[in-house]
Task: structure prediction
Amino acid sequence: MSEIEIRDDRAAGRLEAIGDGGEVVGRIEYFVLEAPERALVPVHTIVEPAHEGKGIAGSLARELYGIAAREGVVVAPLCPFVVKWAARHPEEAPAADPALQRAAKEWLGAHPGRF
Result:
């Protein structure tokens, strides 16, 4: 994998992978759930076709869990890729409480235009 920089654009709800030329080559789109507890909720993982197969999506997922750990919050993944990644890396990706997962799904359902 070529060198990438990962940048958290919290205001836009995007964790972005920036390639060598400064372009965004992948991203996780997420929102911050405030209740019943604060959580980062990834909804989509997207890697540009020319950059697929380089480990970018996994690097983004790992960084999202790292951010959550540093902030003392959990990740409640709704993105299928992040769900699979978390299942393969339980030491890095603690499971979210089922009630929190339900709250995240309800929030997403109540904001259909957000993603």
Notes: The first strand starts at residue 5 and ends at 9. Helices lie at 56-71, 80-88, 98-110.
